[in-house]
Write a structure and sequence with these properties.
By secondary structure, this protein is mostly helical. It has a domain of 241 residues: MFS general substrate transporter like domains (Growth Hormone, Chain: A, Up-down Bundle). It is 72% helix and 0% strand. Helix 2 runs parallel beside helix 5 and helix 11 runs antiparallel to helix 17. The protein is globular. The two termini are 42 Å apart. Pfam families: NFD4_C, Nodulin-like.
């Protein structure tokens, strides 16, 4: 997962694409939209995961990642003829779509392995994805130096190599439920927080001082070693469980085999003349195309169409459109926002790294804190989504009305809110619609994100930016043909677009309150009771089998 977030580096290499290929801001934003489209159209990976093993899903993602980004690198370095715009859009869509295969293969497998800790699990896994931007930035500075074109080559081969190397470790497993898994997850969390803290310190130092190549190598080596610590923790726990299995089985104490009933009690017989007949009600089964009119209870396994045509999913899609759509626009334009406000390139890369680091913090915070609040206070996760959207609106206003230093604050808020909403979105979908078709449903749930990105990034932000840039050219007595790159300078370039984004995010927060009201009874109950009962029954069965 630490290599599955290459899309968050778009703000770093987008300037190289714009300069090399002579794109306008509208064209660059169109490219950004297809990047978001590819990264969010995960229906294909979800459907593939329904019928193929996990290793095939991960290898498919490695192949698409390499092909997409390698073609972009060839175009930017002029090793092939300048592609047409639609070809570049296709390349970046294919490359970005690869992260859905990693998400599907890893998230679905781990949620089925640890269903009672899904919030924590999703927060951790998506958190490492959020860290990938800062991680790969350090690696590319150490390997290639400060060359944004080479970054495209790195994100072409590096994530693919990670998926191929670890493909055999991602698999369904029978987890020992009696073991204290939460403690292990917290150990993973401490390591992840250490990586985030180190990344933030190194990013700030690289902004203040000019690093030598050896110092870049040292920082990349340090963060790589930190990323290997979770592997050591996993090996430690596996050794503990292996030693535990080698211990002799104690004689039964609480459970007596002799007292177990050998056969089920028979129902009382009815006289032949009785007209009463006992019929068992068949348990409803969830299929991909189940009757959409017969909606299961919340928490049960929905069919794909049942979930997609439900009001709850509609409200989730609205929140995704307003929240992820506006935040993606801010992330994709952060490079141009910094340029328009007069920040140097190194500071702009700092903004991108801050977004990546706080993206991680938002994902982990939403996973762990929402799980604690749900367990202790029955606090509904949709209410936390509404709070995140409200905070996101404030972040957009910091960009619309910039002051010295406010872009740093905006980067933190946008990254945090984007990461938090992603984790909450995936978790809420698993809780409301079940895990049977989760591979397809969570990918369908994020479909509104690229639509929001297109509307707000291309149709709103890109057009208003180009309009302001053309106005500045006209004031200088110049035309569009007289410059290769259309650039806007000043706070007015993004003022109106981000006022609109702030209003949209506020509307999304308000609409999410409807979902809170609809699901408040569900979240007041014990939503994990079914999984605990299933795990307890399986554990009892395994205990009896070992003793017999």
């Amino acid at each position: 997962m630490a290599g599955a977030g290459a899309t968050y580096l778009f703000g770093t290499y987008s300037k190289a694409i714009k300069q090399t290929l002579g794109y306008t801001q509208t064209t660059l934003n169109l490219l950004g939209f297809f990047k978001d489209l590819g990264s969010n159209i995960g229906v294909f990976s979800g459907l593939i995961a329904e019928v193929t093993p996990t290793w095939f899903v991960l290898l498919s993602g490695a192949a698409t990642n390499f092909v997409g980004y390698f073609m972009i690198w060839l175009a930017v370095t002029n090793k092939i003829t300048k592609p047409k715009v639609w070809q570049m859009c296709l390349y970046i869509c294919i490359g970005a779509n690869s992260q859905n295969f990693a998400n599907t293969g890893v998230l679905v497998t781990c949620l089925n392995n640890f269903p009672e800790s899904r919030g924590i699990m999703l927060g951790l896994l998506k958190g490492f994805t959020g860290l990938s931007g800062a991680f790969m930035t350090q690696v590319y500075l150490a390997v290639y130096g400060n060359d944004s074109k080479s970054l495209l080559l790195l994100i072409g081969w590096f994530p693919a190599a990670i998926s191929i190397f670890f493909v055999a470790t991602i698999r369904p497993m029978k987890v020992v439920r009696g073991y204290n898994e939460i403690r292990v997850f917290y150990h993973f969390l401490y390591v992840a927080l250490s990586i985030a803290f180190f990344s933030m310190v190194v990013t700030i130092l690289q902004k203040q001082f000019k690093f030598t190549h050896a110092e870049y190598v040292a920082s990349a080596a340090t963060i790589s070693c930190l990323l290997l610590i979770p592997l050591l923790i996993a090996i430690r726990e596996e050794l503990f469980l292996w030693n535990q299995k080698k211990q002799p089985v104690k004689p039964p104490t609480a459970i007596s085999i002799e007292k177990l009933p050998l056969e089920e009690p028979k129902a009382p017989s009815l006289p032949p003349s009785s007209p009463i007949q006992i019929k068992e009600t068949p348990k409803p089964k969830s299929s991909c195309c189940a009757n959409i009119c017969m909606t299961p209870d919340r928490g049960d396994d929905y069919g794909i169409l049942q979930a997609l045509f439900s009001i709850d999913m509609l409200l989730i899609l609205i929140a995704t459109f307003c929240g992820l759509g506006t935040n993606l626009t801010a992330v994709d334009n952060m490079g141009q926002i910094g340029e328009s406000l007069g920040y140097p390139p190194l500071t702009i890369s700092t903004f991108v790294s801050l977004i990546s680091i706080w993206n991680f913090c938002g994902r982990v915070f939403a996973g762990f804190v929402s799980e604690i609040l749900l367990e202790k206070l029955s606090f509904p996760r949709p209410l936390m989504i509404a709070a995140v959207l409200l905070l996101s609106s404030i972040g957009h206003l910091f960009i619309a009305f910039p002051r010295p230093g406010t872009l740093y604050i905006a980067s933190v808020i946008v990254g945090f809110c984007y990461g938090a909403q992603l984790t909450l979105l995936y978790t809420v979908i698993s809780e409301l619609f079940g895990l049977k078709h989760y591979a397809t449903l969570f990918n369908c749930g994020q479909l509104a994100s690229p639509l929001g990105s297109y509307v707000f990034n291309v149709r709103v932000s890109g057009r208003l930016y180009d309009k302001e840039a053309l106005k500045q050219l006209a004031q200088k007595g110049m035309t569009r043909d007289s410059v290769k790159e259309l650039t806007c300078i000043g706070h007015q370039c993004y003022k109106l677009p981000f006022i609109i984004l702030a209003a949209v995010a506020l509307f999304g927060a308000t609409s999410t309150l409807i979902l809170v009201m609809r699901t408040r009874k569900f979240y007041k109950g014990d939503i994990y009771k079914k999984f605990r009962e299933e795990a307890k029954a399986a554990e009892t069965e395994m205990t009896l089998a070992s003793r017999l």
